[in-house]
């Protein structure tokens, strides 16, 4: 290769350097802008207040169906003891009960952590009866037996309040509380009441 050719090649390479430097600078600026935007969004999100669930008839310990479990509420409840995956990407989150060692407070959430249903076992107290809820919300919309809880246990459902009170049909003492989003009877039965029955089932007698 002649000296003239070498000079031409060198001159050509040198002529490309300003262009390459410009491209590098533009790329660095672009990356820097992306990093700045990411940091800005992250900082901004930290100052966005998490919506606290309202306190209403279907609220339990700050949890309200239709709203997310916030980190604060999750911490106040002591964190989940058991998390069980359900169909449709839902989860059953169980929290420790203050009244029972073998029963949990159960919360069903969707894939986004929004509460759909809450079931709470209630310690036996003679003064804690269905009348307490009737005095607050009026007569129940309907009532059905739940044989899973006990042979003489009925679910007294208050649709507009998103509340079902499971109580002994004779003594009216409360056994469980269910919380859900206010709905109509058909939707309640489809979602949460499929195991309820209009018929009373007597416990089987022990063989003699």
How would you portray this structure in words?
The chain is an alpha+beta fold and 208 residues long. The protein has an 8-stranded antiparallel β-sheet, with no helix packed on it. The protein has 4 helices and 8 strands. Residues 40-50 have low confidence and may be disordered.
List keywords for this structure.
alpha+beta; Pathogenesis-related Protein p14a; 2 domains; 8 strands; single chain; 208 residues; eight-stranded antiparallel β-sheet; 22% strand; 4 helices; elongated
Count of individual beta strands: 8
- Tell me the overall shape: elongated
Average pLDDT score: 85
Strand order, biggest sheet? 1-2-3-4-8-7-6-5
Can you tell me the number of structural domains? 2
CATH architecture of the largest domain: 3-Layer(aba) Sandwich
Roughly how many Å apart are the termini? 115 Å
CATH domain class name of the largest domain: Alpha Beta
State the helical fraction.
Answer: 25-40%
The biggest sheet amounts to: 8 strands, antiparallel
Structural class: alpha+beta
The run of helices and strands is HHEEEEHEEEEH
Named CATH topology of the largest domain: Pathogenesis-related Protein p14a
CATH homologous superfamily title of the largest domain: CAP
Q: Give the strand content.
A: 15-25%
Global Rg: 31 Å
């Amino acid at each position: 290769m002649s000296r003239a050719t070498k000079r031409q090649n060198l001159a050509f390479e040198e002529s490309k350097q300003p262009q390459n430097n410009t491209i590098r600078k533009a790329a660095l600026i672009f990356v820097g802008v992306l990093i700045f935007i990411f940091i800005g969004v992250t900082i901004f999100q930290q100052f966005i207040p998490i919506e606290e669930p309202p306190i209403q008839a279907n609220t339990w310990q700050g949890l309200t169906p239709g709203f997310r479990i916030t980190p604060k509420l999750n911490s106040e409840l002591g964190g989940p003891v058991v998390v069980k995956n359900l169909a449709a990407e839902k989860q059953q989150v169980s929290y420790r009960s203050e009244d029972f060692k073998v029963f949990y407070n159960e919360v069903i959430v969707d894939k986004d952590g929004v509460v759909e249903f809450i079931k709470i076992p209630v310690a036996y107290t003679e003064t804690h009866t269905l009348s307490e809820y009737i005095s607050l919300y009026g007569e129940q919309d309907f009532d059905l037996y739940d044989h899973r809880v006990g042979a003489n246990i009925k679910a007294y459902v208050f649709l507009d309040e998103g509340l079902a009170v499971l109580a002994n049909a004779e003594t009216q003492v409360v056994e469980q509380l269910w919380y859900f989003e206010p709905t109509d009877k058909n939707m309640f039965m489809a979602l949460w009441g499929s195991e309820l029955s209009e018929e009373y089932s007597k416990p089987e007698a022990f063989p003699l």
